[in-house]
Design a protein that fits this description.
Blueprint (H helix, E strand, L loop, with lengths): L11 E5 L4 H12 L3 E6 L4 H11 L4 E4 L5 H15 L4 E4 L14 H29 L2 E6 L3 H4 L5 H21 L4 E8 L5 H6 L3 H10 L8 H12 L10 E4 L3 H5 L1
Helix pairs in contact: 1-9, 3-4, 4-6
């Protein structure tokens, strides 16, 4: 960790998908800052919580939850607030970028994709806003993706949701700014999580993507963590309604 954000100590943070991949790195990063972290995901994360408790002396609150179940998601936010105080940092990280051919998408797949990648984000934001207002402010970081900026093919439902996340972020920033709530989006580039390595990171694909980047290093989880911590902290106190790409410069090149 290169930076310390002292105002995040004791902050009540809620991370969706916070037990694996980038989400696990986010949970780790917030705990390292001294925040109280709650996170949701479907799969069991007990072993990860044991690891975090051993590392930081503080155990994250894991709440099993399918984020497409809005009632369960709202209940999880309430449980986190009861345990740690009103959520003042929300990170909407959970997503599913399953590849799909447009002509093969049916209504059921479309609804499932939007439920994970957009609908859950909206209702997570809705669920924390009243508590943030009462606390005198807060920070929301919505994960988008550079995929829609690049016009990537092969997952149009996913890129549609990412574009909508950026638009929603700007509207929420305008609507709740007077309450001291900042809402920003973060668009990662190709972060080489284990899932990405297992599914898509062929030597040819990696070489082609690196050629597009201005900075000639592949992204890792920590690159996203520190940018998220910055947006969550008062170091970015006058930033809201923004979408920041952390991608090594791909969208700069792509134009």
């Amino acid at each position: 960790m290169h930076s310390t954000f002292h105002d995040l100590k004791e902050a009540s943070a809620f991370v969706t998908g916070g037990g694996s991949g980038i989400g696990a790195a986010l949970t780790d990063g917030f705990l390292q800052q001294g925040a109280k972290v709650a996170f949701v995901q479907r799969s069991d994360a007990s072993a990860f919580c044991d690891e975090m408790e051993a590392k930081h002396g503080s155990r994250p609150l894991f709440i099993p939850c399918d984020i497409t179940d809005v009632a369960a998601l709202k209940a999880a936010v309430g449980q986190a607030a009861e345990a740690h105080g009103p959520v003042t940092v929300l990170v909407n990280n959970a997503a599913n970028d399953q590849r799909h051919a447009t002509l093969e998408v049916d209504e059921s797949f479309w609804d499932w994709s939007q439920a994970i990648n957009l609908k859950a984000y909206f209702f997570a934001c809705q669920s924390v806003l009243e508590g943030m207002k009462q606390a005198g402010g807060g920070a929301i970081v919505n994960f988008s993706s550079i995929s829609y900026m690049m016009g990537n093919a092969g997952y149009a439902s996913y890129t549609a949701a990412n574009g909508a996340i950026t638009a929603m972020t700007r509207s929420l920033a305008r609507e709740f700014g007077s309450d001291g709530v900042r809402v920003n989006a973060l668009a990662p580039g190709w972060v080489l999580t284990q899932k990405q390595k297992d599914k898509w990171a062929t030597p040819e694909a990696l070489a082609g993507h690196l050629e597009r980047q201005c900075l000639k290093e592949h992204l890792v989880e920590q690159d996203i963590v520190e940018a998220t911590l910055f947006l969550a902290s008062k170091a970015s106190r006058m930033m809201t309604g923004q979408c920041i790409a952390v991608d090594g410069g791909v969208v700069t090149v792509a134009g």
